[in-house]
Amino acid sequence: MLNRIALFLSGTKGGFEIYVNTIKDIEGLTAEEKDELSAVVDRFPFRTTEYYLSLIDWSDPLDPLRMIAIPSIPELAGWGSLDPSGESDYTVAPGLEHKYEQTAVLLASGTCASLCRYCFRKRLFMDEHDEAPLNIDAALEYIAARPEISNVLVTGGDPFMMGTSKLDRLLESLREIEHVRIIRLGTKVPAVHPHRILEDPELMEVISKHITPDRSIYVMTQFNHPRELTEQSTTAVDMLQKANAVVSNQTPLLRKVNANPHTLAELMNELSYIGVAPYYVFQCRPTVGNRHFSVPIEESYRIVEEAKGMCSGLAKRFSYVMSHRSGKIEVIAVDEQNVYMRYHQAAKLEDMGKTIVLPRNPNALWLDDYMSE
What is the distance between the alpha carbons of residues 46 and 259, in angstroms, rounded to a whole number? Predict the structure, then answer.
């Protein structure tokens, strides 16, 4: 099969060969492991960076960073959907989603520096799917024609994997739309490929020039584990902040990665120390290949609440939410009988703020599991 990932060229930066696109090139795996994982990468493509591989403790088969970046046999379990949040239902132009009135989501990039094994958009990297548009004119026309859209989330893929000049042109086009006040750039580059930022000062100039006193750029990082906050990553974050970007972080709750109160609290506290606002902790979406990462909602709520008890006020500003096809649903309480949720954002305006009360189901991994009982 022809894997689109192989079409991206590798180079060298920061002393590392940047990208590793095949399992056979990972020195930390045995020959037996490489053979065993071939069936996984045939289904779900693999890609990471030498930098990120250097952070893994290869003596630990359950190393959390290994879990994030390296394929594993449980990915082949028959469970989940390739579009668990129903993004196709809200696609209004090639690569453009409009689910919430004030927010548009633009899939501007078709690649990532590292393909996280828990990714909920892994369909983008599979051969039979190609949603990131080659031409975004239709998306920009749609946004320009709708004054209710005040912010655009540029994602993919990862917008920091675009060429700097191409990202500049995209930001310029969005800035020409008067009602777009906020641009968000969703990225894991600071965690997996910080040299993209450290060694390209022009990138910071591009971000800085598109920020004005009344029009912000938010960089939405995805640090999943405290060990990703290395000297290089924190320096990259500092450069973004000095370019006047507002940096916030979101992460799914992932079994054997951060689904532990102490690990989650450490991550949130460390983020707050470097001035990164914890934004969302997501319930792991029921995506094909993700079953082994998923933690039941009621257990996740307990982990989140225990972690918050170990965090400062600044570190526990995040919300624990589920990105359901009907909206972003916050889990707000669990008692002996019921689970209490609230629409933090809703696809239908009449659902905004609506409370959902459901009988407890300790095995439920998603809202639909409660509904099917």
Answer: 24
pLDDT > 70: percent of the chain? 93
- Helices 164-175, 201-209: axis angle to 10 degrees equals 0
In tens, the pLDDT along 13-38 reads: 444 459 999 999 999 999 999 999 99
pLDDT of residue 127: 67
Separation of alpha carbons 312 and 298, rounded Å: 23
In tens, the pLDDT along 114-132 reads 999 999 999 998 865 566 6
- 27 shares its domain with 153: no
Last residue in a domain, options 16, 43, 74: 74
Q: State pTM to two decimals.
A: 0.93
The answer to whether residues 336 and 228 belong to one domain is yes
The per-residue pLDDT for 78 is: 87
Q: What is the dihedral of CA 95, 101, 102, 107, to 10 degrees?
A: -10
Mean pLDDT of 46-67: 97
Residue numbers of the domain that contains 172? 87-371
Whether residues 230 and 362 share a domain: the answer is yes
Q: Identify the residue with better confidence: 331 or 5.
A: 331
Structural domains in the chain (count)? 2
